[in-house]
Write a structure and sequence with these properties.
CATH class of the largest domain: Alpha Beta
Mean pLDDT: 90
Largest sheet: 7 strands, parallel
Helix content: 40-55%
Strand content: 15-25%
CATH superfamily of the largest domain: Tandem AAA-ATPase domain
CATH architecture of the largest domain: 3-Layer(aba) Sandwich
Radius of gyration: 24 Å
């Protein structure tokens, strides 16, 4: 296909060419992949800058999305791309090939560093692109994520250009930005260390006198100052700036827990312990485990202690959410429905209640069947249904059987069928997002927290708009 960049895509390309280390915060479906490849093609094949480039991305995106984009556009015919994926032999063979752009999943970064050291070879990649750069948010210089540390050891000595790509720069709040920004400027803008960043813009409030850790929150001046610090290296693009998007309709479907399930929920909430009808005991040993047990109870099944009852054993305590989902399916009048679940027990119960449902797996045929309208009900975990998957042809209805705390996963799975992709595919139809929420449970807290996270991130993105 012939590539005719939109104005905003031209701005992305210019920003990447003119700013050697930069952020590109572009929403899903805005074409940031082809824009970045166009910039790389210009830098490597026109300007003659030294390469090659390494693109880091989630596995499925590294394996298929980036190579597919090169094959798709005629102006990229002279750009060679090789994925570094598979087993060790396949990765070594890929590195032995001569290419201008290599793609690799983040998980293989420690292996790559070790392999190069074993071979006595210097770091060869003069340009690094971090697709979904929030994967680097855990970087802490001396601690944090192993993958980010492996990259941090060489990024300011052997890398000339570094590009962060994401549509969700701060999915869990402003604290997510430091790790990503460090790879661009070694901490010049947000602090040389995470502790310096944390001490400058965050404070801790104790929830009770004996609280050892407290609750972290951003100080009133934090957002404005962080935005100002990053503005010169950041460009932001939103889909609604250039597409006439169909509406996104959000709906909360409230269900009441049956009396027995409510009793188990209250026991767990108050005592961190409950005894089920068959005598099985469920216990939480800390606050995090308690939150998870309460989420399980709200969804309809509780996991038992693996040491006493065996790994992965759970018991159903109610089917209120299954009944609510049945109503949604009936009201959809035959239209396909995408269902997001969280726990393996959710999946098992959904499969039992809806035998015709299909589960999103690694088989490409599943996606083809969904998009062709042959799958009435598709079950997907948000963590495995993001970044590059196109499900918009199959339907425009998504139901969250259970919501979880990750804003990034939440937004990613919605956008698989979301307004941007609907518009790009020529479907002028609204997108319906239904959340099944158990009243007076942690479900309500999760949904409220997702909205809070979204508001922080949206404010941040809006502040960066209009730079170009």
């Amino acid at each position: 296909m012939k590539f005719t960049p939109r104005d905003y895509q031209g701005a992305i390309i210019d920003h990447q060419v003119l700013t050697s280390r930069c952020n590109v915060w572009a929403g899903m479906g805005t074409g940031k992949t082809v824009s970045t490849l166009t910039a790389l093609d210009f830098l490597l094949n026109v300007m003659g800058e030294p390469g090659p480039a390494l693109v880091l991305a989630p596995l499925r995106v590294a394996a298929s999305t980036w190579p597919a984009e090169v094959r798709k556009w005629d102006h990229l015919a002279g750009l060679s791309v090789v994925p570094i994926i598979g087993d060790r032999a396949a990765r070594e063979a890929a590195l032995a090939q001569c290419a201008q752009v290599y793609t690799m999943n983040y998980e293989n970064l420690p292996w790559l560093r070790l392999y190069l050291e074993e071979q006595g070879k210097p770091w060869p990649f003069r340009i690094v692109v971090a697709d979904e750069s929030t994967r680097l948010k855990s970087f802490r210089v001396r601690q944090g994520g192993e993958r980010a540390r492996a990259l941090g050891q060489i990024v300011h000595q052997h890398v000339d250009r570094f590009i962060n790509l994401t549509g969700t720069p701060a999915p869990n709040g402003l604290a997510d930005l430091w790790g990503q920004a460090w790879f661009l400027d070694s901490g010049a803008r947000l602090g040389r260390s995470f502790s310096a960043f944390d001490n400058r813009w965050f404070a801790t409030k104790k929830r009770h006198p004996n609280d050892q850790y407290g609750e972290k929150f951003a100080m009133p001046h934090a957002q404005e100052q962080i935005e100002a610090a990053l503005r010169d290296i950041t460009i932001t693009v939103k889909a609604e700036d250039f597409l006439d998007l169909p509406p996104l309709v959000e709906n909360v479907i409230e269900v009441d827990l049956p009396p027995s399930a409510r009793r188990h929920y209250r026991d767990m909430e108050r005592e961190m312990f409950t005894q089920l009808a068959g005598g099985e005991e469920v216990e939480a040993f800390n606050a995090a485990a308690l939150t998870m047990k309460c989420l399980q109870a709200a969804s309809g099944a509780m996991y038992l202690d693996p040491e006493r009852y065996g790994e992965g054993k759970w018991i159903e305590i109610h089917d209120a959410k299954l009944d609510a989902l049945q109503s949604v399916i009936e009201e959809s009048a035959g239209a396909p429905v995408l269902v997001a679940y969280h726990f393996k027990s959710d999946l098992a119960r959904l499969q039992r209640a809806f035998p015709k449902a299909r589960t999103l797996d690694s088989d490409p045929q599943t996606i083809d069947d969904w998009n062709a309208g042959r799958v009435p009900l598709l079950l997907a975990h948000p963590a495995s249904a993001g970044h590059g998957l196109n499900l918009q042809d199959g339907g425009n209805i998504i139901v969250f059987f259970t919501s979880n705390w990750s804003l990034e996963n939440d937004q990613q799975i919605i956008e698989r069928i979301g307004p941007t992709r609907q518009a790009q595919a020529g479907h002028n139809r609204p997108v319906f997002v239904h959340r099944i929420v158990a009243r007076q449970t942690v479900d309500e807290l999760v949904v409220a927290r997702l909205k809070t996270k979204a508001s922080v991130q949206q404010t941040l993105i809006d502040a960066m708009r209009g730079k170009r």
